[in-house]
Amino acid sequence: MDARTIIESLTGKFPEAISEAGIESPIRIRAYVDKDKAKEVCEYLKGSLQFDHLCSVSGVDYPQRDELEAVYHIASYDHPVVLMLKARLPRDSPEIESVVSVYWNANWYERETYELYGIFFKNHPELKPLVLPDDMLGEWPLRKDYEGFPNRTARNLV
Predict the structure, then answer these.
(1) What is the overall mean pLDDT for the chain?
(2) Where does 3-157 sit in CATH, by number?
(3) What is the pTM of this model?
(4) Are 91 and 68 in contact (CB under 8 A)?
(5) How far apart (Å, rounded) are the C-alpha atoms in residues 144 and 135?
(6) CA distances from 24 to 15, 30, 105 (A)
(7) Cβ(42)–Cβ(71) under 8 Å?
C-alpha cells in the first residue's frame, strides 16, 4: 500500500474528521484528525490499513493560536509508510480520548504527554505521574509559557 492509497482511504472513510492530509515523501504522510474521532481513526488505521506500530505520542504548544496539538507517529510493518496524525486541542481544556486500547504502548507516551503538556487522555487506564517530582505536577513544563525554567526543571531538582 502506498502513501496516496492510504490518504485516499483515510479521507474517504472519515471525510469530516480528516483534514490537511498530505504526502511529505513516498514514505511519510501527515494529516489532522478531529479530536473526537482520533481513537476511531486509530482503530481503522490498525484494523484496516495495517498501521500496527505506534512510534510516539507527544504534544506541541502553540500559545499564539491558543491551542495544543496531540501528535501521533504511527507506522506499519506491512508497508513502508509512517503517518504523523495530529489533533488540535483547546489550550484551556486539552483533552482527547486515550488510544491505549488500540495501541498498548500508548500507555507511557500518553502519561508523559499529560505530565509535560497537560493534555488529558480520557479513559486512560492509569494516567498517573511518570517522570516529574510531585511538587512539579500540574505545572506543564514543556508549555511555552512555563515560568519555572531554568530553576524549576527536573534537571535542577536532582
Answers:
(1) 93
(2) 3.30.460.80
(3) 0.92
(4) yes
(5) 19
(6) 20, 7, 26
(7) no
